[in-house]
Design goal:
Layout (H helix, E strand, L loop, with lengths): L1 E4 H6 L1 H9 L4 E5 L2 E6 L27 H8 L2 H5 L1
Parallel strand pairs: 1-2
Antiparallel strand pairs: 2-3
């Protein structure tokens, strides 16, 4: 692990990123106090269908909800006006 101050990080950002891409961890400090870490990127795996078999619904989930209809379109009396 390497520590650098903000000025050095700004001045040598490209070089620091090259080192990070090779696996090195770099700490950026302000007045000697660590404020940020430069670490190699780790892609998070994406799971599609992660709840398959755990989430159940029936076709009534797609029925029109009268309360929502009323909020959008008002009462029948208002719709005829």
């Amino acid at each position: 692990m390497t520590a650098v101050n903000i000025h050095e990080a700004k001045t040598h950002l490209s070089r620091l990123l090259e080192r990070v891409s090779k696996g090195e961890r770099i700490v950026i400090s302000k007045a000697g106090k660590p404020i940020a870490d430069l670490v190699p990127h780790r892609a998070a795996p994406v799971t599609i269908g992660g709840l398959k078999g755990q989430l159940h619904y029936d076709d009534s989930a797609f029925d029109v909800d009268p309360d929502i209809q009323q909020m959008f379109y008002g009462d029948d009396a208002d719709a005829s006006a």
